[in-house]
Every structure is written in C-alpha cells, then in structure tokens.
Description:
489 residues, alpha/beta, Rossmann fold, five-stranded parallel beta sheet, 40% helix, disordered C terminus, Phospholipid/glycerol acyltransferase domain-containing protein, glycerol-3-phosphate 2-O-acyltransferase activity, phosphatase activity, transferase
Amino acid sequence: MDSVVSELEGSLLKDRDPVSYFMLVAFEASGLLRFALLLILWPVIWLLKVLGKGEYGLNLMVFVATAGVSESEIESVARAVLPKFYMDDIDMEAWKVFSSYDKRVVVTKMPRLMTERFVKEHLRADEVIGSELVISRFGFATGFVKSNNIDSYISSRVAKLFIDEKPGIGLGTPASSFLSLCKEQIHPPFMANENQYDHHQLVRPHPVIFHDGRLVKRPTPSIALLIILWMPLGIILATIRILVGLVLPMRAKPYLSRVLGGKVIVKGKPPPPASSGSSGVLFVCTHRTLMDPVVLSTVLRRQIPAVTYSLSRLSEILSPIPTVRLTRIRNVDAEKIKTELANGDLVVCPEGTTCREPFLLRFSALFAELTDQIVPVAMNYRVGFFHATTARGCKALDPIFFFMNPRPVYEVTFLNQLPIEATCSSGKSPHDVANYVQRILAATLGFECTNFTRRDKYWVLAGNDGTVSYTSFVDQIKKVVSTSKPFFL
C-alpha cells in the first residue's frame, strides 16, 4: 500500500508558524486577556526560535493558550473554530501529492487535540501524530505536554506506525526529523506533477460548511495587535451606532449609516408597500446575520416585522423593528404568520439559522403554504474584524460585535416576486416551492444549496440541537454559552 507522511505546519499548511492557531484557542476558549498575554509574549517566542530554541517557544505557547482551560473547551474550539482557518491556509499543491496516496499520516508539533478533527475529517488522513496535552484529573489542561522532545516523539511514533515497511514519501521542511524514515522526501515549495498522480489529486478537501468564533481573520501577531488596538474604539463606535439606530426614524438611517462607516448595496427593485386592506408581501431572505431583517427594513425605509425563534432578550430590546416570536408548534406558528401578513409585509429567513460560508441550508417549507405573494431577497455581508453570529458564545453580544466592525457592508438583492405558477396556488407542493426559492437565491449569490438544517449546524458546532428554554432576561445575560438563534422559521 502506498503511504505518505506529511508535516502539517509549513507543508499541508503554508504557514510554518502555529502562533495564530494558539491565539485563536486563547481568544475563543478563554478570552481577550489570555489573547493579549500571548501577543505580549510573542517577541520572546520569536527570539527563542531565532536562537534555535524553538521547542521552548512552542511549549510557552501551549502553556499560555491552554493552562487552566477545560479539555472539552479546547476540543470545542478545535471542532468549531480552527477548521475554517486551517482550510484557508491549505497548500493545494501539497494536498494534491498527499491525497494521491492510500495511507495518509499527518505529523504536527501542535497538540493533537487541536488538529485531529480537521485533519481526519477534512484532509481524510488515517492517523495524526502530535504532542499530547497533560490533562488533570478534573478535566483541565495543565499547559504542559507529555513529551519533552517533540521531534524525537514524532519520529518514534512514525517508526512504530510503519514497523514493517518505511513510508513511501515524506512531505516536510528539511529540518523535519521524521523524513529520514521515509523512502523519498519532498520539501516545499511543492509542485504536483499532473501526470504522476491519479484521479485523487482532483479531489478537494472536504469543505468547511459550518464554523464558529468571533474573529474574521486569522490572528497573526500583526492582525492580533490591530484587533486589540481597535477594541476600545470599536466598543465606542458600536454604542454610537446602536443608539443612533434606536433614536432615528427608519427613513434617516441610510444616510447616517454612511456617515458612521456602514454601507448598504442595493440591487433589484423592491415592491411597493402593501395597500390598506390587502395582504402583505412575504420577504423570504437568506440568513447571514441577525441584522438581515433590520437591514431590509432600512433599505425599504419602513419597519417590516420579522418572525424570530429564540432571539436573545437583549437583541429583542435593541431591535428597531417589531419581532414576532415563534413557538416551533407548526399550526400555532402558521396562524401567527397569517395574522401578521393580514396586517402588512413580513420578513422570514427559512434557513432557520445563519451560515457564514457560501452555502444555503435547507429551507423550511412553511412559508410556501401561507401565501402566494413571495419576494425572494438575497442577503450577504462583509465585515473586517468580528463575526456577528455564534453557536457557542453569548448571543446577546451578536449586534454589538456586528457594529464593532470598522466598515460593515451589506448587499441586498431583490428578486422578482414569484409568479403564480411557481407557488402552491398552481398545485406545486410547499417543498417544491421552498426548494425553488432556495435555488434561485443560491444562484444569485453564487452559493451552493445543501440539505443541512439548523440542527445539523448545532450538532457540529456546539454538540447539541440548538434548543434552549428561556427563564428570564437576567438569566440570558448571565449565560455565557447559549444556543438560541434569531429569525427562525
């Protein structure tokens, strides 16, 4: 059987320095203080590397990022946050070589707990060899690793794994000690010979559809410094933007948003407001952030109510538009939506949860059963520093993180209202209508349709089905990890 052993850092990943991934663990698993401490110590880590003591620098990163953090929290960050940033840094030429072999092994100097899920699920590796964190009997990382010499540990593990026959090929930097165990060695930069490998090189890594975490960019030391310097200014800017949004009338908000750094790009022609006595239009939107219905109302310059499910109490208070809380009881929710449509226009996001990647989740078909006046709206957004959605974190902070971005940009594309022959009135099933709307919205945005649901997302990111029972507003504010999602149908 053909086999390959590849180094992760500097080979499968372009960046040889793993500091940004430890920064992510520090920020997402612990918070800003640990994140800042690791950044402060980065010059020491860099100096140790220059002096040939890189292993001491690595141990220092491991200690600062993980000491006192529960094993389950580190695993949660490795499952929900890190894969996106690993995937963005993949060297596709190295991947072509790596994926063309039957038995694939990845070695890394990072803790195995931080890399194993991504490497096995997305790179389809058979084995992952990395340092092992020392976990206390209470389930918390001590900050230490079990092996004092990571290079010797990796080499011994590779030798034991290939006790009968040497690995066919090794991918890594010239300093990688395990390469001496391989029959053939390839060093970066990698250039895959298209004629040398079979059809495997055409297979891409499994895509990352769901990911969590607040940071948009991988926090290299320079990016991490910018984030920390921006934080105080971002909080002030977010406060001003939220107060302006609550005080000003809807017609004035588009002008003030530009002054405060925001931008909304509108394409297509929106329908006029519903006349008195007639049923309203149902705006069916893709769901990128909890701001989708608010931005739509701002573009239309009138308040359009939005149906919600488990919207945080703080977000409800801060919302400048009316919200209609659903119950997840189908007939009750249908009556609520019918009542709102009888009074005017309404906004729904039938994906039921947000998705950051260029994919659309499966649409609930309930909206198609309730009206024939359906206007699809393709929503998308761009931010620079912080994501405005979370599955693991505190959802009450979602609007604050959105407005902390220097220049948030929203794109709103109005499609034509569905013709009668494309609705249930022509005999089509609600699922056919929902799937059709999903396809045309995906085509507009250049996204891919999927059959994944809200429940799938939460099992991947948070290890639960996303269902939350609320007790009080105070309990919601105190709750650090919440699984509520806004604007659900």
